[in-house]
User: What shape does this take?
Amino acid sequence: MRIYADNAATTSLSPTAKAAMMPYFDDIYGNPSSLHTVGQIAKEALTDARRRIAAVLNCAEAEIYFTSGGSEADNQAIVSAARLGERGGKKHIISTAFEHHAVLHTLKELEKEGFDVTYLDVHGDGLITAEQVRETITDETCLVTVMYANNEIGTVQPIAEIGAVCREKGVVFHTDAVQAAGHLYIDVQRENIDMLSLSAHKFHGPKGIGVLYARRGIRLTNLIHGGAQERGKRAGTENIPAIMGMAAALEEAAAHIEENAAKTAALRDRLIAGIGKIPHAALNGDAEHRLPGNVSFCFEGIEGESLLLLLDDKGVCASSGSACTSGSLDPSHVLLAIGRPHEVAHGSLRLTIDHNTTKEEADYIIDAVTDVVASLRAMSPVWRDLRNGKRDYII
Amino acid sequence: MALYSEKVMDHFRSPRNVGVIENADGVGEVGNAKCGDIMKIYLKIEDDTIKDVKFETFGCGSAIASSSMATELIKGKPVSEALALTNKAVAEALDGLPPIKMHCSVLAEEAIKAALKDYYDRNGIPYDAADFPAEPSCAHCETGE
Assistant: This one.
């Protein structure tokens, strides 16, 4: 048996998306830039996909740029806004401490160039406020970039409120919506979003394809130079099969967004209640302003990698923010940003379910996590010290 | 998972010598919770021989497997042999560890040395200080702080 509970890492390809892709591997292989019929058929498909994606986000076709995924879209959005700001003498950027590395590392590069970046403190509940953004904007600010929903702890930020502040102040607002697109209702006009990144494989589309939405009037800076594809802003022959799969997956997700969210959130809450019964376990991030599929816990006295390996033995695929699983020396910057000390950040578990998850699977996961946490604690000197009062419980 | 050898996974899934020895003759604890791994070794020593050994570990899969293997390698052996155990021997007995996990075998070696030092100290047995690291190293996390 295998239960996949790592949908924030990637999702399975939906049969609808796969079916939408297949003709473009076979009969419709043309290059949309070609003048002949074979090319023009592919171009029609490309235009159609762009129109459908624009309709879901409530923007214009000309505002959709296809990229290789969320990371490229984040990089291009941020660099573009920085270059625009620089031209007007503005070199201040506002972001948060718990963005995805695609955003944080791009900002670090800009800091080396002399940009001043303010990383807003994230509250213990995993949220920032529009008021924090308002207080931090100066005459020098050229960009506010705040993620729509956090990839590790699933907290959903007040995007429409932040968008309203940015619009009022005349500052470009970008949001990394990689975890939100296809799961939450997004309307770039209503929410005053100027730029948005999304990635198809997070909503049951194919890997290696994403979108940068950029509001008309925002001049993009090329990361990839060459041909005139994507209105001259992203060179390279379009990945038509992936684009068609993404359009189909996004439309499918949007058509079922409410029922999927309701079903998934009910199981999420079942998981949170069940796992929450484990002593000295704490939910990471606000319970209410949360992605429908995200369950994130810290457990006292154990380490995350051993937890994942034992869960994998029981057929449960999950992830963790421990240093051992991140490949770096420190545990997750997200858990540290919400104030979890290193000691408990090492003992974190992220389960990300979707609408395909069943109640039986959720109950199995609860039992598996409970067993594994108990068996690891039974051999943990830290847990012994906590129980004997030689060390203080943190959570 | 392909991250670890079968031997590592075997010792991780079914760790040998887990537990505590009441009235141990030597106890050693190394690492810290902030780094994400702590190993504690308990020794029962009779006639200059490791009669029994138990461990408790807070840490990743390779930390648990390294502790388990280290206890197997010294159990029933003369104290001098236990003292000579190297992290390399632990890693080799596990059919290797990924490079970023080698510090787990270092912790296992240091935990055993710390327990032996405790045994010597308790019994007033003279020893060569050069055999023991002054401050058990936690290099991987010192550089990360």
Notes: The first helix of chain A runs from residue 15 to 21.
